[in-house]
Amino acid sequence: MSEEELHRIGVIKGVCNKQLTQMTAASMLGLTRRHIQRLVNQFRQDGEVGLVSKRRGQASNRRFLPEFREKVFTLVKQKYADFKPTFACEKLAELHGIKLSSETLRQWLITEGLWRVRKRKQKKIYQPRYRRECYGDLVQIDGSHHDWFEGRSAKCCLLVFIDDATSQLMSLRFCESETSYDYMNITREYIDNYGKPIAFYSDKHSVFKVNSPSRKSSKQMTQYGRILYELNIELICANSSQAKGRVERANRTLQDRLIKEMRLAGINTIEEANAWLPEFMADFNRRFACSAYSSQDAHRPAQESAVELDDIFTRQSSRTVSNSLTLQYDKVIYLLDPTDKAKRLVNKRVMIYDYPDGTIALRYCGEELTYSVFDTLRHVQQGEIVSNKRLGAALAFAKESQEERAEEHHRHRNKKAGSRKAQARCINPVFMQDVEFKASLTRD
């Protein structure tokens, strides 16, 4: 007997013993009074068995006939043996006029051994964890790609730094794409404002972690990982987005509130937004930030000087000096001035400092080397691999390059991801050649 029938027995017994009226029993069981009367009559005649459904154990009146089932099996075996149940059902209806639900066909195929049930992947359980106790103990970082300006400007990325202990927005910065140079700039800004936290908590984006299968077992680190190592800041990569849920939920809130705030403020460009973001952060933290469990501030003051920080926040690579006192980096050949010091560097490794502003410095044991540029690469590399998070910026650059090439036949160098502007140091002449060439086109 089912639970419903067991419940009916108790109610009908109450009616037979005159403990309940038929109207009360009808309201309790959701039936009519006449139905209650029929149940009472069956109970008095046959007892509890009289309340059991007479159709239990019998075949359904709407079942398919065995001949129809055999016909479907014959068609499936002959023509649709490798079809999935849903697809096979569609073809049976379209080509043979056989209407059958996909779930019915699936169950038939499973019974006959023609379809194997795939085990559903068990949903992983993520249990919550407590916040960190101290402000500055752990800072979650992430990049959120979104149409932040609602079509008034191109889609871009918002870099978000949020404190785990207080949910306070520490730094926000709009950029075209999520690159190493953008993280260098916002991290430098963070350290200047607050000091050095104990650790940054990020995802497994290629900016933070070497994801190449051939290098996973090696001890290589990314440029951003090297920067944090030199600053004595721990970098922790989360295994899932749920693990860094603080910043993920903040991104969702920002995609709602920040977009509308910029619309009301009339902000339409990345430059305007970056200048206005401190005002928004102050208001956001006043509304949503909470107090840390401990009053201790875990931030450490930066011991490095401004010049040392400039050298740390760079792309650093090493190259071997050839017999002709040359080395190649970023598709450019650099010629060392033939001084006595440079001649002693043949077959030795020289450090290359590639600054975010586009300047290049060559050093050996901390001593800067003078050089000139010999650029022979004037073509665009077609097969360069682009991260999916940089795809929008890469396509935008490709479109711009195609428009330039359609107007003139000169081919430019392929730019890297980071956007750079010349500052005080010795400017990489290759970047200046591109700027001067574009300026000449504008004047003409």
Structure description:
The chain is an alpha+beta fold. The protein contains 14 helices and twelve strands. The protein has helices at residues 3-16, 22-29, 33-46, 66-79, 85-96, 102-112, 180-194, 223-230, 245-265, 270-288, 306-312, 340-343, 391-407, 429-443, and strands at 138-146, 156-163, 169-175, 199-202, 234-237, 315-320, 326-329, 332-336, 349-354, 360-364, 367-369, 371-374. The strands form three sheets. It has a five-stranded mixed sheet with strand order 3-2-1-4-5, sandwiched between helices. The termini are far apart. The relative contact order is 0.08. The model is unreliable at 410-414 and 416-427 (pLDDT under 50).
Tag the structure with descriptive keywords:
444 residues
Short description:
This protein is an alpha+beta fold and 444 residues long. It is built from 14 helices and twelve strands.
